Amino acid sequence: MPIPTFSGFGLGLRKPHYADFLETDVPVDFVEVISENFMVAGGRPRHILRKVRERHPVALHGVSLSVGSAHGIDADYLVRLHALVDEVEPLFVSDHLSWSRVPGFNSHDLLPLPYTAEALEVVCANLGRAQDVLGRTMLIENPSSYLAFAQSEMTEWEFLKAVSDRTGCGLLLDVNNIHVSAVNHGFDPVAYVAGLPLDRVRQIHLAGHSRGETLLIDTHDKPVPPPVWALFAHVMDRVGPVAVMIERDDDIPPLGDLLEELDVARTVTSRRLAA
Amino acid sequence: MILGALQTDFRDWLTCGSNDAAARFAPDAQAGLVVYQSNYRAALMACLEESFPRTAKWLGAADFHASAARAIDAAPPDSWSLDHYAATFPQSLAGQWPDDAVAGDLATLELALSEAFVGPDAVPMDANALRQIDWDRAVLTAVPTTRLFTLQTNVPAIWSALASDADDPTPEPTAQSANILIWRQEHVACFRSLAPEEAEIVALLIDGITFAEICGRLVLARGEGAGVQTAGQWLGGWVADGLLHHGAPG
After folding, report:
1. Of the residues A112, A189, B75, B174, which has the maximum number of CB atoms within 10 A of its CB?
2. Which residues on adjacent β-strands are paired with residue A96?
3. pLDDT tens by residue, B172-198
4. Do the beta carbons of residue B12 and residue A111 sit within 8 Å?
5. Contact status, residue A104 vs residue B78, Cβ threshold 8 Å
6. Which run of H or E residues covers position A127?
7. How many CB atoms are closer than 10 A to CB B134?
8. A41, HSE (Cβ side, Cα atoms, 13 Å)
């Protein structure tokens, strides 16, 4: 099933802003939530999600599907995600091109994949199963990464294109992740963007990062920096209607600060459209 | 390299820092692997800090972090849910602090409250429903977040002191076995201590029990008048607390 396009500007729903979203009319076109935070039986989290859903379209963004696990994806996880999807009727359902589990172990982190033919088979099989169970096409997000495997046989963008070609999935393009990985691994972010099937991009993440000793770290704890804004402008020249959002997960500022950042995204987008 | 073997090697790096595994990824993998290992441990530490704030206050930050680090080393997470990971911590603490039973008891209480907070929803019985009940047949059932367990120390009093912003002194720990009732009222997870007699009846409420049987048990224990009066008082309290589930047959 093709993923409908949606054009708008949104924010990730985070605890410090629950009251804002429940009590005021926050000027966003959609809200993204971390799926796992709401994959619980009931209580206040599900209540808040229902209330927010009454006001805004909601995108479900997961971190634990583990689409790259050689041993497959967790059946219990899929059942719970399916139940949440049925209740929320989300705009998009997305997760990352990464893995987090082997039998008896879950890292709770987005771990990197070697871009090999074998990994491609694994990702496509797992993603195909997830899409079959959920009854809908998913978006896959490009990750930030801190190591490149010697075993890789193709670039990340070639791998993503192949996954999308074979499974029909759409893409969630995280512009900050492209920048972080480009700096860490020394590739050209423009070549990355050029190698993607941009007509399948449905959502864009904008975020900030930190500088570690030798690597950029995808911390989501700072405003979107200038190089990411520049790459965003480059991307917006080349994609169709998309859902654009600011993704902030740590050192979360007042909602007004994030809305100001979102206004910058609106301005960049309108300038590109005008040009 | 086969993907499954690579992922097992990666797990070994995260949990043990195995350099043998690291060398198989890439010649310059070390810096990146350190970032992944740091992220892995930070996520688990943050989970435990967020799940057990009063236990941390009781132990002090340094001892809590040391205990959490030992728990992370001893038992890596095996579920997609971090809530499931937190569930292993009270037992770990009880083992690490054999001479401080309060640490394990506090963590057990915090975990139970967290589980009730996100437990299944249920419509509680309201006082008006009592008038329409057939008391000979009415089966009373506790809301599905209800749990009953025993703690070995005076943790309820210590909990209240730790929760207070005032500088009230924390009570000295004492060995004082207590039946603890946990449930969720609206969106708030609650607990209270129960005397053994009420705890025995509430244990039966979890699976459902007729009000007639409750009365029968209390009449046997206390006599006709006092037994029926106590049953009525408890019933009123359970309804007021939102402990009883609406919709039981009757």
Report:
1. A112
2. A141
3. 888 888 999 999 999 999 999 999 999
4. no
5. yes
6. helix A117-134
7. 9
8. 14
State the pLDDT at residue B250.
41
Please say whether the beta carbons of A36 and A10 come within 8 A.
no
Supply the pLDDT for residue B90.
97
Closest residue, chain B, to A214 (C-alpha):
B31
Least CB–CB distance from A217: residue in B4, B7, B35: B35
Amino acid at B236: G
Specify the pairing of strand A58-61 against strand A93-96: parallel
pLDDT of res. B171: 79
d(CA A102, CA A72): 9
Q: Which residues of A touch B3 (CB under 8 A)?
A: 68, 70, 113-114, 116, 118-119, 122
Q: What pTM does this model have? A: 0.94
Query: What pLDDT, on the 0 to 100 scale, is given for residue B247?
Result: 61
Residue where the block lists tokens 């206004």:
A263
Q: What distance in Å separates the CA atoms of residue B231 and residue B216, rounded to the nearest whole number? A: 9
Angle between helices A226-236 and A255-274 (to 10 degrees): 40
CA distances from B68 to A25, A136, B46, B99 (A): 41, 40, 10, 17
pLDDT band at B21 (very low <50, low <70, confident <90, very high): confident
Under DSSP, is residue B118 helix (H, G, I), strand (E, B) or coil? coil
CATH superfamily of A8-274: Divalent-metal-dependent TIM barrel enzymes (3.20.20.150)
3-class DSSP assignment, residue B139: strand
Dump pLDDT digits (tens) for A159-214.
999 999 999 999 999 999 999 999 999 999 999 999 999 999 999 999 999 999 89
For every residue of B83-145, DSSP letters joined together read HHHHTTHHHHHHHH-TT-HHHHHHHHHHHHHHHHHTS---PBP-GGGGGG--TTTPEE-B-TT
User: Can you give the residue ranges of every domain in chain A?
Assistant: 8-274
Q: What b/e sequence results for B155-181 when a residue is b if at least 16 CB atoms lie within 10 Å of its CB, and e otherwise?
A: bbbbbebbeeeeeeeeeebeeeebbbb
Cβ pairs bridging A and B (under 8 Å): 117
User: How many CB atoms are closer than 10 A to CB B144?
Assistant: 17
Mean pLDDT of A43-66: 97
- Mean pLDDT value across chain A: 96
Report d(CA A235, CA A178) in Å as an integer: 11
Give chain B's domains with CATH numbers.
1-118 (no CATH), 122-250 (3.90.930.50)
Q: Which amino acid is at A51?
A: K
Choose the weakest-confidence range: A71-80, A228-237, B36-45, B153-162.
Answer: B153-162
Q: In a 3-state reduction of DSSP, which class is residue B177?
A: strand
Q: Give the residue among B26, B27, B88, B13 at the shortest CA–CA distance from A102.
A: B13
Put simply, the answer to whether A105 touches B117 (Cβ < 8 Å) is: no
Lookup: tokens for B75: 């038992």
Least CA distance to B24: which residue of chain A? A150
Residue A171 phi/psi, 5-degree rounding, is -120, 135
Report whether pLDDT(B166) > 70.
no
